[in-house]
Amino acid sequence: MSTPQIPLTDWPGPMTTGVPVGAVLGSTGSLELKTDGQVLTNLHISGRVNVYAKNVVIRKSRIVAPDASCPIRTFGQARGLLVEDVEIDGRGIAGPAVSPGDYTLRRVDIHDVVDGPRLGNRTSILDCWIHDLVRSGGGHNDLLQTAGGSGILVRHNRLDAYRASGDPMSACLTITSTGGRLVSDLLFEDNYCDGGDYTVSVRADAVGSNIVFRNNTFGRNHRYGVIARPRQLGLSWENTNLWHDSRRQVVI
After folding, report:
1. What are the tens digits of pLDDT across the range 148-169?
2. Which SUPFAM superfamilies does the record cross-reference, listed alphabetically (predicted)?
């Protein structure tokens, strides 16, 4: 299944995501963040980060999962969480990496999780590298998943679902609608995506409005195809989506 590798110099990777080289980190355990505007930096966090406050910032830090729970989770009135230049190491047991919404990830390196971030209301994934998911039983392993939400931006990320072992995992992005929840105003652009049963898995129950895919580049290491149900109501697939190896349009 694997196709020859072409350098991915146009998208994030190990040199541009995660903890900056030379950063010195202090150690701490799990955190409960309840102060609006709190800024955390240069930490090695062995545990979970639960956010209850507004406009919290986590920078230049590493979060190592202690168990199978969610490494970063927002609760209640938490709004505007910014996670920047951070590594999330799920140790093969944690996932989803971040949930459920009201956050921005920028230059975050996420790996060895069962599932990547959940995309709820007001979420942005920018300049991140998500890779090396870990199988857990017969589960569906997705780099990104939304089951309902509005105001979602996924821009200029490297999304590597395919593993060198030959496992494509489930998807780079899964769109579904739990309980009929609407997925609206989702922009997915300028990303590199490779792997998945379908690289973009649009489930039969997905209820969408203004879901746009444009200017993305795709590898060929999927199992069945680039996108399932590309003509689902509310979804727009533009002709600017290209194959990485040929730079030709992905025709669906």
Report:
1. 999 999 999 999 999 988 999 9
2. Pectin lyase-like
